[in-house]
Amino acid sequence: MQVIQQTLERPVWMDGRALALLLAASLTTMANATISPALPGLERLFAGDPNAAMLTRLLVPAPSLSVALFAPFAGLAVDRFGRRLLLLWGVILFAVAGCAGLVLPDLPSIFVSRLVLGVAVALIMTAQTALVGDYFNDDKRSAMTGLQISARNFGGLVFISLAGWVAAISPRWPFAIYGLAIVFLPLMWMVIVDPRRSQAPGAKATSDAAGHPSFVLLLSLLVLLQALTNMIFFVMPTQMSFFLEAKGYDAAMMTGAILGTVMLSGGSFALLYPRLQRATGYAGIFLIGYAAMALGFLLLVLAATTPVLFAAAAAIGAGYALVSPSFVALTLNLAPLRHRGVSGGVLTASIFIGQFVSPLFVTPLIAWHGYGTLFGGTALLLAAMAMAAGLAGAAAKVRRR
Asked: Which of 149, 163, 200, 384 has its CA 20 to 30 A from that of 401?
């Protein structure tokens, strides 16, 4: 496949293909967290179901299970059958499965529709990641990975804020928001093409095609770290509405506002990612990002007032948005071109494995020890991760000398 060169004078976001890929990226946040403000209402709506409490909490991470299981196979399909076809079908399936909750009669059937939604997300994310690697190189690629996270966050801000409003009317209305994916389909249809499979000659292209000699080991480490990062971050959309309800807030409206703050902060800081990455390197980015997340969870422990809650959400959103692009950028830099789809699929699976296990691990911990212990322990873990990143960066500098 030919890597398509970009001109230095043209900002990457002005490329129609980049815009289409950024719209696709915005869908991935919508997939899980859009219905978060509706969770207490859905639990009350289906109160007759003896498993309503657990099923309701699993609706948010349910797509993550499908993505975790299906994404590696989606990556293989993307490498074999092309990126464009699977991206377009993924968007169509996304809209249909996402809107199904409007009419399905019970929680088990809604849960199944959320699993199907995860299949759509796997197709979209693996195709999108591979296309970023195909279309862009070097600084353009780094800029795109940051813009992807920004698009996810700003898209999440719009979708989750809207969901907070409509959930106050009916807990079913947030499912209608998934239909917006169809609006993005015409642009994707027009501008997304599969790069040619022939690789242009040249030392840079050959190096990019070959990948890193130890890419399997390094990718495995990235996968584990990203799964842990997402398990921690997903405390916010899965537990925040219940935490706020326990503190006496209007859970539907306040959850939308808090998660909107996470997205707004994350989207803003993700725009700074290329500049910060060049200045500090990947180790520096992980240090800053994990330290910000640690501060955010510490503030949740101390959250006696509403402004502190919003400050905590902003810190967590900023930190997560800074570390997330590095996983994609490092994977695209390490993986051979011929394995870019499956590498993106495995990386995508790690995100959603972390998201799915988050409530399974966290909900019993809250029941046994309360929110304070959860948030305090999470802050300590993130602080240790930040220190490890700093030590790794310092060791790398010593080796280079």
From this structure: 384
